[in-house]
Amino acid sequence: MKFLIVGLGNFGASLAEKLTNQGNEVIGIDSSMAKVDALKEKISHTICMNATDDFTVTGLPLKDTDVVIVAIGEDQGANVMATALFKNLNVKRLISRAINPLHEMVLKALGVDEILHPEEETAERWAKKLCLVGVVDSFELSDDYSLIEANVPAIYAGKKIGEIDFRKKYNILILTTIKRTETQGNLGKSFFVNQVQGVASAELILEEDDILVLYGANKDIQKFLNNY
Question: Can you name the CATH fold of 135-225?
Answer without folding.
Answer: Alpha-Beta Plaits (3.30.70)
